[in-house]
Amino acid sequence: MDCDVLTLAGIWNSGPSHWQTHWEKRNPAWKRVAHRDWNNPDRQEWVDEVDAAIAMSEGPPILVAHSLSCGLVAHWARSESALSISGAFLVAPADAEGAAFPSEAVGFAPMQLHKLPFPSIVVASTNDPYVSIERARAFAEAWGSRFVEIGDAGHINGDSGYGDWPEGEKLLGELCRQVSA
Protein backbone atom coordinates (compact mmCIF):
# COMPACT_ATOMS: atom_id res chain seq x y z
CA MET A 1 0.00 0.00 0.00
CA ASP A 2 1.56 3.25 -1.11
CA CYS A 3 0.11 5.75 1.36
CA ASP A 4 1.62 7.64 4.26
CA VAL A 5 -0.17 6.31 7.34
CA LEU A 6 -0.35 7.39 10.97
CA THR A 7 -2.10 4.98 13.32
CA LEU A 8 -4.06 6.33 16.24
CA ALA A 9 -4.76 3.80 18.98
CA GLY A 10 -7.49 4.29 21.54
CA ILE A 11 -7.27 4.57 25.29
CA TRP A 12 -4.79 2.09 26.82
CA ASN A 13 -3.03 1.79 23.42
CA SER A 14 -3.31 -1.17 21.04
CA GLY A 15 -1.53 -4.29 22.23
CA PRO A 16 0.47 -6.92 20.33
CA SER A 17 -2.62 -8.83 19.11
CA HIS A 18 -4.38 -5.72 17.72
CA TRP A 19 -4.74 -5.25 13.95
CA GLN A 20 -3.01 -1.85 14.15
CA THR A 21 0.09 -3.52 15.59
CA HIS A 22 0.02 -6.27 12.92
CA TRP A 23 -0.30 -3.72 10.13
CA GLU A 24 2.53 -1.58 11.50
CA LYS A 25 4.84 -4.63 11.58
CA ARG A 26 4.14 -5.28 7.90
CA ASN A 27 4.51 -1.60 7.00
CA PRO A 28 7.50 -0.25 8.95
CA ALA A 29 7.13 3.24 7.44
CA TRP A 30 3.77 3.61 9.19
CA LYS A 31 4.00 5.40 12.53
CA ARG A 32 1.79 5.16 15.60
CA VAL A 33 1.06 8.54 17.18
CA ALA A 34 2.54 8.46 20.66
CA HIS A 35 0.75 9.94 23.64
CA ARG A 36 2.23 11.06 26.93
CA ASP A 37 -0.55 9.35 28.85
CA TRP A 38 -2.36 6.39 27.26
CA ASN A 39 -4.44 5.67 30.39
CA ASN A 40 -5.86 9.12 31.16
CA PRO A 41 -6.32 10.83 27.80
CA ASP A 42 -6.97 14.54 27.71
CA ARG A 43 -8.61 15.61 24.45
CA GLN A 44 -6.60 18.80 23.93
CA GLU A 45 -3.29 17.10 24.69
CA TRP A 46 -4.12 14.24 22.30
CA VAL A 47 -5.22 16.70 19.57
CA ASP A 48 -1.89 18.53 19.97
CA GLU A 49 0.05 15.24 19.80
CA VAL A 50 -1.79 14.21 16.61
CA ASP A 51 -1.09 17.62 15.09
CA ALA A 52 2.64 17.30 15.92
CA ALA A 53 2.75 13.84 14.30
CA ILE A 54 1.01 15.12 11.16
CA ALA A 55 3.56 17.96 11.00
CA MET A 56 6.37 15.35 10.99
CA SER A 57 4.83 13.43 8.07
CA GLU A 58 6.32 13.79 4.59
CA GLY A 59 2.93 14.52 3.08
CA PRO A 60 -0.69 14.56 4.19
CA PRO A 61 -1.16 11.12 5.81
CA ILE A 62 -4.17 8.87 6.18
CA LEU A 63 -5.13 8.60 9.85
CA VAL A 64 -5.99 5.01 10.83
CA ALA A 65 -7.93 5.37 14.08
CA HIS A 66 -9.51 2.92 16.51
CA SER A 67 -12.09 3.49 19.24
CA LEU A 68 -11.54 6.73 21.20
CA SER A 69 -9.25 8.00 18.45
CA CYS A 70 -12.11 8.09 15.93
CA GLY A 71 -13.64 10.93 17.94
CA LEU A 72 -10.14 12.37 18.32
CA VAL A 73 -9.91 12.68 14.54
CA ALA A 74 -13.20 14.60 14.49
CA HIS A 75 -11.92 16.90 17.26
CA TRP A 76 -8.62 17.41 15.41
CA ALA A 77 -10.57 18.31 12.23
CA ARG A 78 -12.30 21.11 14.20
CA SER A 79 -9.07 22.31 15.86
CA GLU A 80 -8.22 24.94 13.22
CA SER A 81 -4.91 23.24 12.49
CA ALA A 82 -3.13 24.61 9.43
CA LEU A 83 -2.13 21.04 8.54
CA SER A 84 -4.06 18.63 6.33
CA ILE A 85 -4.50 14.89 5.97
CA SER A 86 -5.48 12.78 2.97
CA GLY A 87 -8.21 10.80 4.69
CA ALA A 88 -9.27 8.83 7.75
CA PHE A 89 -10.03 5.16 8.37
CA LEU A 90 -12.20 5.13 11.52
CA VAL A 91 -12.78 1.75 13.16
CA ALA A 92 -15.15 1.05 16.09
CA PRO A 93 -15.78 4.68 17.08
CA ALA A 94 -16.33 4.89 20.85
CA ASP A 95 -19.32 7.04 21.80
CA ALA A 96 -17.98 9.72 24.17
CA GLU A 97 -21.57 10.39 25.25
CA GLY A 98 -22.34 6.73 25.95
CA ALA A 99 -22.61 5.06 29.35
CA ALA A 100 -19.71 2.67 28.62
CA PHE A 101 -17.27 5.43 27.64
CA PRO A 102 -14.18 5.28 29.92
CA SER A 103 -14.34 7.94 32.63
CA GLU A 104 -10.55 8.32 32.42
CA ALA A 105 -10.91 10.07 29.05
CA VAL A 106 -11.44 13.79 29.57
CA GLY A 107 -12.93 16.31 27.14
CA PHE A 108 -14.02 14.02 24.31
CA ALA A 109 -17.73 14.75 24.80
CA PRO A 110 -19.73 15.98 23.13
CA MET A 111 -19.02 14.05 19.94
CA GLN A 112 -18.09 16.33 17.06
CA LEU A 113 -20.76 15.79 14.43
CA HIS A 114 -19.51 18.04 11.62
CA LYS A 115 -18.66 16.94 8.09
CA LEU A 116 -15.01 15.98 7.88
CA PRO A 117 -13.02 17.92 5.24
CA PHE A 118 -11.37 14.76 3.88
CA PRO A 119 -12.53 11.33 2.65
CA SER A 120 -13.24 8.80 5.37
CA ILE A 121 -14.57 5.34 6.09
CA VAL A 122 -16.27 4.31 9.34
CA VAL A 123 -16.21 0.58 10.13
CA ALA A 124 -18.57 -0.58 12.88
CA SER A 125 -19.86 -3.72 14.57
CA THR A 126 -23.43 -4.55 15.52
CA ASN A 127 -22.40 -5.61 19.05
CA ASP A 128 -19.68 -3.14 20.03
CA PRO A 129 -19.89 -2.44 23.79
CA TYR A 130 -18.70 1.16 23.27
CA VAL A 131 -21.15 2.28 20.56
CA SER A 132 -24.51 1.17 19.23
CA ILE A 133 -24.70 0.47 15.53
CA GLU A 134 -27.25 3.28 15.23
CA ARG A 135 -24.84 5.81 16.79
CA ALA A 136 -21.95 4.59 14.65
CA ARG A 137 -24.12 5.02 11.55
CA ALA A 138 -25.11 8.52 12.74
CA PHE A 139 -21.42 9.43 13.22
CA ALA A 140 -20.63 8.26 9.68
CA GLU A 141 -23.54 10.23 8.26
CA ALA A 142 -22.57 13.41 10.14
CA TRP A 143 -18.90 13.05 9.18
CA GLY A 144 -19.75 12.38 5.51
CA SER A 145 -18.03 9.01 5.77
CA ARG A 146 -18.61 5.80 3.88
CA PHE A 147 -20.19 3.39 6.39
CA VAL A 148 -19.21 -0.28 6.55
CA GLU A 149 -21.07 -2.57 8.97
CA ILE A 150 -19.25 -5.87 9.58
CA GLY A 151 -21.79 -7.70 11.76
CA ASP A 152 -21.13 -9.08 15.23
CA ALA A 153 -17.47 -8.14 15.65
CA GLY A 154 -17.33 -6.77 19.18
CA HIS A 155 -14.97 -3.82 19.49
CA ILE A 156 -13.03 -4.89 16.38
CA ASN A 157 -9.79 -5.46 18.27
CA GLY A 158 -7.49 -8.33 19.19
CA ASP A 159 -9.78 -9.45 22.02
CA SER A 160 -12.62 -9.75 19.49
CA GLY A 161 -10.51 -11.90 17.17
CA TYR A 162 -9.44 -9.08 14.87
CA GLY A 163 -5.69 -9.52 14.96
CA ASP A 164 -4.39 -9.45 11.40
CA TRP A 165 -7.79 -8.43 9.92
CA PRO A 166 -7.08 -8.61 6.16
CA GLU A 167 -10.61 -7.42 5.29
CA GLY A 168 -9.93 -4.16 7.13
CA GLU A 169 -6.60 -3.73 5.39
CA LYS A 170 -8.40 -4.19 2.07
CA LEU A 171 -10.84 -1.38 3.01
CA LEU A 172 -7.91 0.84 3.95
CA GLY A 173 -6.35 0.03 0.56
CA GLU A 174 -9.54 1.26 -1.13
CA LEU A 175 -9.30 4.56 0.77
CA CYS A 176 -5.61 4.82 -0.10
CA ARG A 177 -6.36 4.38 -3.81
CA GLN A 178 -9.23 6.90 -3.58
CA VAL A 179 -7.07 9.65 -2.07
CA SER A 180 -4.13 8.87 -4.39
CA ALA A 181 -6.23 9.12 -7.57
From TrEMBL:
- Record's keyword annotation contains Ribonucleoprotein: no
Q: Name one GO molecular function term.
A: hydrolase activity
Keyword list, A-Z: Hydrolase
* Keyword set includes RNA-binding: no
InterPro entries associated with the record: AB_hydrolase_fold, RBBP9/YdeN
**What's the name of the protein?**
Alpha/beta hydrolase
